[in-house]
From TrEMBL:
Family: Belongs to the FAH family.
Organism name: Leifsonia virtsii
An MF annotation (GO) of this entry: hydrolase activity
Transmembrane segment boundaries: none
Protein name (record): Fumarylacetoacetate hydrolase family protein
Lineage of source species: Bacteria, Bacillati, Actinomycetota, Actinomycetes, Micrococcales
Pfam family, one: FAA_hydrolase
Amino acid sequence: MRFSHLSTDADAHPHLAAVLGDGALFLDEVMERAPRDLQDLIERGDEGLAEVRTVVEAAEASGRELIPVHGLRHASAVLRPPHVIAIGANYAAHASELKLRSEKAATVFNLWPNSLTGHGATTSWPADLSTQVDYEAELGVIIGTPARNVSVRDALDYVWGYTVVNDITARDLQFSEAQWSRCKSFDGFTPTGPVVVTADEIPDPQDLWLTTNVDGAILQDASTADMVRSVAEIIEFLSRSATIPPGTLISTGSPGGAGYSRTPPVFLRDRSTVTVSIGGIGSLTTYCRVI
């Protein structure tokens, strides 16, 4: 199944919807006790998801009319996640182009929740704070059940779903500070979506293709097979030291092709349009404004 947080206009509170092709079914219109957002649905466990499946299938069978998604507004595909964890330098090509060391252990940092935004949103930043804003296509993994001391063999059983992430980064801040959270956590610097796809629809997260299109040019084009550490290995690594709670979003790193490494560099500018796509999940578009 596919889920989005959608609203009918700019001022409306987003509601959780099942996305069926080009149409959306708002769950609170067909369920008495509808989950208020994806986090609520995840916390209801397997029974909660099974109930939603039954309701959605019944609505489809009855011929209920869907609302065209193109006329709706997207919020972040994840809302209220307990953690947003990012993995750095997880593709050898990206680590090399940024001249980052490939450490024996994974590079882990947090993204601040204010950075979350949705498909089709406009992300803005002040010109006097950064002039080197870059894009990063990443596979987002959403944890479904508490993960502690998980083995690689079992790790994917703890995944609830997957989404698309653009890990927007202020490179001039990144290379002037000892940590990476601030440079990646401006308001709107972590677009996610347009949907979260349940794990059963993605048989192998290491067999997905990622692309980034900036103003009409394909600048990233790679496979998740190129990850230094697989999704399962990341979950094992993180769960050894702390329990990963349900709803946690893990952004798994970006392949090569970053704008910073190009000659000349390609940075996001005022009115740039960025679309990050992952096969089997969807395409996430962000509009940029420099203020």
